[in-house]
Design goal:
alpha+beta; Nucleotidyltransferase, domain 5; 4 helices; 159 residues
Length: 159
């Protein structure tokens, strides 16, 4: 938990902040004078047991390829799966009333995929979107990005 400096905005309502990249999402709540990290989600490969999901493609007695379906899943499909996990987590938090407004920090190349994953109930709570990679940024610096409306390597976009 961090105290919000005087010069930064102090949200009166519970403001959710989420910073997302292709494999990590960090969720914070800012309210009055404090900002707190609530959760961090990381993409993990599905757990496999033994030869579960293993296949071999043969032609004329020769093994052409073998492995599991996850070995052949594209990076875009993995990102889509992760973004849906994050979107489901946000929907659960919204349903429980953990935040009133939401600010999303997402890299430009992932913005469209993440927007597609969001539920309309969560989408209605979006206050701002800042384009850029801010997963490893200090939460008070995220508030600065909201205040200035500019992001290094990206531009402020009102939703």
């Amino acid at each position: 938990m961090w105290h919000i400096p005087r010069e930064l905005p102090h949200p009166k309502d519970r403001l959710g902040l989420i910073a997302i990249d292709s494999r990590t999402a960090k969720f914070y709540i800012a309210n009055e004078d404090v900002i707190e990290e609530i959760s961090e989600l990381n993409y993990t490969e599905p757990e496999k047991h033994g030869r579960q999901g293993f296949f071999m493609a043969r032609a004329s007695g020769i093994v052409m390829r073998s492995g599991t379906l996850d070995d052949y899943r594209s990076e875009k499909e993995r990102r889509r799966f992760f973004f849906h996990q994050v979107a489901d987590d946000l929907l659960k938090r919204r349903t429980r009333g953990e935040f009133d407004g939401l600010v999303i920090f997402v890299a430009k190349e992932y913005k469209k995929l993440f927007d597609e994953a969001l539920n309309p109930a969560v989408r209605q709570t979006i206050v701002k979107q800042v384009v850029g990679d801010f997963v490893h940024t200090h939460p008070c610096d995220l508030l600065k990005k909201i205040k200035t409306g500019q992001a290094a390597g990206g531009a402020y976009k009102k939703k």
